[in-house]
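User: I'm curious whether this sequence folds into something compact or stays loose and floppy. Could you predict its structure so I can see for myself?
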Amino acid sequence: MTSGRERPVTPGRDEFRALAAGGRHVPVTCDLPGDHETPVSAFRKLDDGVHAFLLESLEGGEKWGRYSMVGSRPTLVFVARGEHCEILEDGVTRPCAGPPRDELRALLAARQAIALPGLPWFCGGAVGYLGCDAARWFEGRPAQAAAGAGPPDAVFLFTGVVTVFDHVAHTVKVVTHARGGSDPDASWVAAVERLDAEIARLEAPLAWPAPKSGAPLGQPASSFTPEQFGTVVERARAHVRAGEVLQLTLARRLSVALRAPAFEAYRALRLTTPSPYGHFFRIGDFCLAGSAPGSLVRRTEDVIEAHVLAGARPRGRTAEEERRLEEELRSGERERAAHALGVDLARSDVGGVAEPGTVDVSEWMEVERHSQAMHLSSTVRGRPRPDAGPLDLLGACFPAAGDCGAPRGRALELIEELEAAPRGLHTGAVGYFDLRGGLELCSSAHTLLLADGRADWSAATVITADTGPEAAWRDTQDQARGPGLALQRAAGVGR
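Assistant: Here's the prediction. I'll summarize afterward.
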């Protein structure tokens, strides 16, 4: 590569001055050859060891996963625990006065940018996660007493520079944003310098050490034994039969010691369970690594979408077994009923923030295949109301009905009672808010928490009135298999 200043920067100084009039945020970009880097190699070069992210398309093509985004060195970090939040900026941490939802809403509103042609929808904004308990932000329920334990309820990194891979156009864009202010020329020069610095990091040679033999992965510990889980399933069925909930999603947590570096766990995950929503976050002393099959909620331009995945079977080992499992999935009464309910709930969720008469369902109960599983899939779309901001759109759909049950409020109360331990980040949401009012987040039900030499994840099942304990346990085993295989791979070969 050559230096960033020897490449055209868009917009140029004069055009930037005009676009930034009135103090507007303007994207400033530089194009790089699309065949010099991969998202993984770019992440390894850009990762500063403190705060970094990789949002990656692994399957899905243009429809559900066209772009991969890499970034580090955020300009601001938003952290929320319980009913309190704080901001880390320029090495200083300051507490926020308001509740987390209001503070995050204000941060996003203050950073909206103009759109330029030819740019991907996300080229800067806030990337991060919300844990399951952040659902209280949208429901008015008080935080749990143990809110200070474990990872924060939410963390969002406000990007400085983002490197965006377009897997359809085979291009790479390095993007930053600058505000006009009183001296737009100085703002433009500073933006170009940020691009230069990031491109210099991408130009640096990258050493790939020879693989080292690692220690075998131990047997993961489970929050429930099969017998204990069976008892909880029966209790959940009683609540369903009593009419308190239509269905309830129960999860068990798994944990295992892991000596491999956290990013090696993600690299293994992307190979064993590729999906449209691969993600890796380094957030101080812990990391997240995940591979989710579908989005929770997405807004691009004038469309809000909720992707419903409910009902699953493992992939067949032969063509004949694949056909048999697909037919089981298509015809299974339990799977079809759970999926239909999920679609009805998604219609209601989207309808609450969409213009009247614009909500429809497409791709009804199609079979969507991924590396380890096949799912029944439907998509609900609508045109968002002008007064519905990004957090309103998220709050309407979060957490996913498939992750908790329905109705959402009572289901979350029962989950706290039955599972005996807070879910934390599990079955929360992972993704981004962009600088034009859009968002795209997936469920964190398929996300590993990597901290203190351990890997933690969850495996869930949907409980209806006729769900048997053995079938429920088998569902959790199927869901736990993909992360387990990835961790075995990461443990066997470290870097």
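Summary: The chain has a mean pLDDT of 88. The first helix runs from residue 13 to 19.
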